[in-house]
Amino acid sequence: MGVSVIKKLAAVVTPAILALSGVTLAGASAQAADDYTASVRTSCNLTVPAVVQVGHTPRIRIHVRPNAPAPAAGIRAAQRAADRPTGAVTVSIQRGGTGIFSRTVDYNGAPVTIIGPVVNRPGHYVVNARFKTADGTVFRSCQDTTAFDVGDDNSDGPGPGPGPDGGDDPGGLLPDTGGPDLRWLILGLSLMVAGLGLVVAARERPRSPYLV
Amino acid sequence: MLVGGIALITVGAIVLGWLAWQFWGTNWVSKGRQAEVVADLQENWSDGQGTVETDFGNATGILRVPRFGSDYEVPILEGTTDEVLAAGVGHDEDTAGVGENGNFVLAAHRVTHGEPFADFPDLRDGDLVLIETVNADYTYVLDTGGADLIVPFTADWVLDPQFPVNPDPGGTTALGKPGDQIITLVTCSEIFHTDNRSVAFGHLVESVPKLP
Questions:
Q1: What residues pair up with A80 in beta bridges, in sequence order?
Q2: Which of B160, B173, B145, B150 is nearest to B103 (CA)?
Q3: Which of A158, A168, A182 is closest, CB to CB, to B94?
Q4: What is the pLDDT of residues B39-61, one digit of tens each?
Q5: In Å, how far is B15's CA from the nearest CA of chain A?
């Protein structure tokens, strides 16, 4: 009887153990597969001008790139395109904690530029870009935050501006990367020489005979 | 007369003192800013932030030019305002971004304000220009030297976001074709203020994404 009971128990327990083992193994296998599921981190790079003039619109550029090795040389263009993150990018702008702008655009792998709203109030504006990957891709989402200031100072801009250092004429195009005007050096030296001349002349001037 | 002479000497000394500040004082201040921004960048990159907001502008990368020294590193900020150029190298935000197809334009002071491009005329074709961002390390090679091209500051063709083509037939221009990844470096062509700019062109030869 003892043997019979043991056999019956074995007949019941063994399949159960095997079934559980199978489930466990399958689970472990699935878990292992999850651990190695291709998932590529991405980095969002948000670019805006540091200063935007009152009444103008900020140009906001977003570039999402995978943090993965570049495809090998010679790889087909179609495959390279598949290696780019795609999805949607949402750009939002806040001023003083209050949202003033939000826009979502498709992201197809190439940098996108969004023209922001006309900003009429001077102050500090915070820009956030959030990339949400398309379904079925291996890329992860990312976000980036930066800021710009709105001011009405017309001395700044992409071109050079007039200034105390003898800057270029307004309306120039290439950045003003120069130093002070040579005329300031000439002026300073001229003043020094003229002043020294006056001092020397004053000291060499004949004194009044009444003082002799 | 004596008083007038002393007054002239005083004014002349003030002018020369201001010049001395421009040539030496601003360098001292700006080099401190540059080091501060570079440190901020490296710290924020470790947190995954690609763009770093600073008091001087939004920084996105670090420029290294072996020709300028093994320890040469200057932050790249967005825009070319006076504040930006006083804290590092400015990226003209209307041109391509680093590593992107098109013309990636950087400008910096040759004298004063940290003078990142002080040795610009020493650049030779074949020199490397290295740029680090949160995502990748980019290597450009110069196709022209720092003394090969001088243009007036109104030469907007240099800033063409696609491909800079010198309208002067036979003049120094960028090599390659539209769609290539071009870099353009711009600075002043003389030590004192000038309306002319020195320009050097190069192209991207390598981009190595950073692994997470």
A1: none
A2: B160
A3: A158
A4: 988 888 887 778 888 888 889 99
A5: 5
